[in-house]
Write a structure and sequence with these properties.
With about 375 residues, the protein is an alpha/beta fold. Helices cover about 30% and strands about 30% of the residues. The strands form five sheets. Strands 5-4-1-6-10-7-11 form a seven-stranded mixed sheet, sandwiched between helices. It has a five-stranded mixed sheet with strand order 15-12-18-16-17. Strands 2-3 form a two-stranded antiparallel ribbon. α3 packs across α5 and α5 crosses α6. It binds magnesium ion. The site of magnesium ion has 5 residues, from β12 and α8.
Length: about 375
């Protein structure tokens, strides 16, 4: 039995926003279309893949699929029509060249179609079989914002794709239904009297429509693909004339100040280096050279926020940070809560993921002699890897 997948990608998909039709937007470094096509290419039960695209989208298509274009299962794209139904018909007509026994119609915007679901549909080998999920929410009918009735959900299903059919029967059904505007192929098949059965779909096999869907897609694709990394940082600033020190973003009155190009916040500097270390991004001096005048007197939260930004840019998140301040004076304990909250705010994480500790060196060494303050920090981050 030969099986072809017809992927409908001819829509303009403006609802999700952005300049590109949504099937050409990238999630996790690849386009939605790439993810979708790849699922069918890598399934051993699928012999041919035909994609129906908008006539204007050839460049997008070639860009989107990259090396997949060389795969022998992938047929040259065909042009879709003005409606989804017309696009499917044009795709089916093109597929006559390979004349499969079974055709699976699938939306390009459902990249989470699983190999299991494809297998279940193929195994059914029915005249028609669609992936669907039972309706579990209570359904209400309303008019003008006011409830009229509760709709009995018995026997109601939410239709998904893929939808699988005998190729010749579906082609005939589509030729008969030409010019109508039916929303899925099961509806077309039914107008021709084909028997269509339900195969349990997957909750993850959702259609990307809104911006929130794209966020969820990003999360789903990085699941199970995260690694934890740690970094450490160390910094020292010497005491100088002054009447306060800035430690972990908090100004503490003291009989001396700390000397430095910026605000000399030794705690935030160590922490910034720890975060940069965790993602292999060099050190604070490389990002904010002391030779640059613009960083003179700079508040160190700018440096720390930049490091946190670099973590976010990699779709990473900060798991926890831990700082130890090393000095005889000033006393830290009464400022600890405020420091944790300040750091949590800069990093946009919960304060229970932030620890600030303090210790002395028993009057030994430069910190013991009161010549300066040292700080060390460690940070754990979780970032996606390929
Ligand atoms: Mg420093």
């Amino acid at each position: 039995m030969s099986v072809a997948a017809l992927i409908v990608a001819a829509g303009r998909g403006v609802r999700a926003g952005g300049d590109l039709p949504k099937q050409y937007r990238r999630v996790k470094g690849q386009t939605i279309l790439w993810h979708t096509v790849n699922q069918f290419i890598s399934h051993e039960g699928v012999d041919h893949i035909q994609v129906a695209i908008h006539p204007d989208d050839h460049a997008y298509y070639e860009n989107a699929l990259g090396t997949l274009l060389q795969n022998a299962k992938l047929l040259p794209p065909t042009h879709g029509g003005a409606t989804r139904q017309e696009s499917v018909l044009l795709g089916l007509l093109e597929l006559r060249k390979v004349a499969p026994d079974t055709v699976m119609i699938h939306d390009a915007a459902r990249p989470f179609v699983s190999a299991d679901l494809i297998s279940r549909l193929i195994a059914h080998n029915a005249e028609g079989a669609i992936a669907a999920l039972p309706v579990v929410d209570t359904l209400k009918r309303a008019e003008g914002g006011a409830l009229i009735e509760t709709v009995d959900r018995t026997g109601l299903w939410r239709a998904q794709t893929p939808q699988a059919f005998r190729f010749s029967a579906l082609l005939a059904a589509h030729e008969n239904a030409r010019g109508e505007n039916l929303t899925d192929d099961a509806a077309v098949a039914q107008t021709a009297g084909l028997k269509v059965v339900i195969v349990e779909g997957d909750a993850d096999n959702f259609k990307l429509t809104t911006e929130a869907d794209f966020k969820m897609a990003e999360q789903l694709m990085t699941q199970g693909n995260l690694e934890t990394r740690i970094g450490q940082g160390f910094d020292v600033h010497r005491f100088d004339d002054g009447d306060s020190v800035t430690l972990c973003g908090i100004v503490i009155p003291h009989d001396q100040g700390l000397k430095g190009h910026s605000d000399a916040d030794v705690g935030l500097h160590a922490l910034t280096d720890a975060l940069l270390g965790a993602i292999g991004e060099g050190d604070i001096g490389a990002h904010f050279p002391p030779s640059e005048e613009k960083w003179r007197g700079a508040p160190s939260h700018v440096f720390l926020a930049h490091a946190a930004d670099l973590v976010s840019q990699r779709q990473g998140r900060i798991l926890n940070v831990d700082i130890t301040l090393i000095c005889e004076a000033p006393k830290i304990s009464s400022h600890r809560t405020e420091m944790r909250e300040k750091i949590a705010q800069i990093l946009a994480i919960e304060s229970d993921r932030v620890s600030v500790k303090a210790t002395t060196t028993e009057r030994l060494g430069f910190t013991g002699r009161g010549e300066g303050i040292a700080a060390q920090a460690i940070a754990a981050v979780e970032i996606p890897h390929d």
